[in-house]
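Okay, can you check this protein?
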Amino acid sequence: MLKHRVIPTLLWKPPGLVKGVAFDSWRTIGAVLPAIKVYNMRDVDELILLDIAATQEQRAPDYEELALLTAECFVPLTVGGGVTSVEVIRELLKAGADKVVINSAAFDMPELIEEASRRFGKQCIVASIDARRQEDGSWRCYSHAGSRATEREPGEWATQLEHLGAGEIIITSIERDGSMLGYDRDLISAITRAVDIPVIASGGAGSIDDMIAAIKDCKASAVAAASIYQFTEVTPAQVKLAMAQAGIPVRKQLRQQLQEEI
């Protein structure tokens, strides 16, 4: 049975982590390594680390710094930001990333998804979609950290990304990002209806109920969040416990697993 995942997101604007609201990330909230060490002990299923400045600054990821971080990260780590070629993906994987997120480059070079999936396996290629609701109620995809509008509709784009070979999709509502007002459930549902691969809900989680609804009502496979873990007392372990109580299959917490083995 598919286990649903709880995934904290870390927004990295070197040299530190930042807090973002609607993709406007300006507030520094600490260093990356201490956050990774904390999440190592908090029963998370995975971590997402996004270098949100790399694409805008037209630079490659910092592979050396990433290697130092992955050496201290004991959960699967998905890394994104500045991914523009197969060579970049190869270097990220060599530096210790388990999966790589591709967003902006896919609009100009959709073949990048196809080639990366073929070379490295679709299980480590994650396509990211950032969407903004338009005045008429429809959505449009945006690239370059939400700064450039495209002509793509999220559902149609998600379908194409799946056909190209993406193994997962992260769907983020730009307006809800960092707001803690709840996920855009209509947007998430539109993506899960469009594809058969796992969908990670992102952008706006403000309560455990939001996360449960994203899975039970919108059919997301995983829930990503940042602010709720950084600015409230909610922990990933509490989220997983509440999910289990709501009948959602989740991976065992490490402490529970160790107790059973003893």
Summary: The chain has eleven helices and twelve strands. Residues 5-261 form a domain with the TIM Barrel fold (CATH 3.20.20.70). The longest helix spans residues 154-164.
